[in-house]
Amino acid sequence: MIKDMDKPERSKSLLRFAAPQMFYPLAGRLAPWFAAAAVIFVGIGIWLGFFVAPTDAQQGEVYRVIYIHVAAAWMSMFVYLLMAFWSAVGLVMNTRLSFIMAQALAPTGAMFCFVALWTGALWGKPTWGAYWVWDARLTSQLLLLFLYLGFMALTRAIEDPRRADKAGAIIALVGAINVPIIYFSVKWWNTLHQGASVSLNKAPSMATTMLVGMLVMAIAAWAYTIAITLWRVRSLILERERHTEWVAAELNALEGKV
Questions:
Q1: Of the four listed, 130, 141, 226, 250, which is most buried by Cβ atoms within 10 Å?
Q2: CA-closest candidate to residue 108, choices 246, 237, 242, 232
Q3: pTM score, two decimals?
């Protein structure tokens, strides 16, 4: 009976972090840990990918771009789905922090999307003979970049935060349709882009060292995303709540430290 009573109490204690004032200090405590993890995993991933992993029998040394390209491509899709998730939560539950989370994720997702396109072009030149082709996956990935840029431009162009939140949420939810198109494009259409090297349905089509290096870089990308998003959330909270007493007290405390 006591255990059953503890569950709602735990839920209430977690829900308190939905308030920007409560989440702000938590984000400040967590961000450095994830940033440190990102640095560590990037170091391990680069060491495995560029110094330990063997040379590919067909592509030679140029294949090593996958240790950046694949992690960036994965994160560009995952981050957009996270944006759509937080946008949906914000629309349904009308929580300010949910919209802030979506907006904090957008720049990082756009960065990963750009890196995925850029490294893909560097990989495409020696393998396909061209930096760019109007391939189904490349084209849908480019569309994803435009969706990111459109989301950021729209939310910043509208002065009323509530209207900006709802407009951005609609773009995020509608644009989420493009993510499965990117992922399944190599199966649905005849494209130059190779299929997935990692799948839940079959064994990996690469050496274990290559796979481990790629997964470590993906973990590093996740840790980086969490850290930078938490720091950006803190900045957005201060911007949104700048007229409140607790923000004034926080800024005074920061000035005092300086």
A1: 141
A2: 232
A3: 0.84
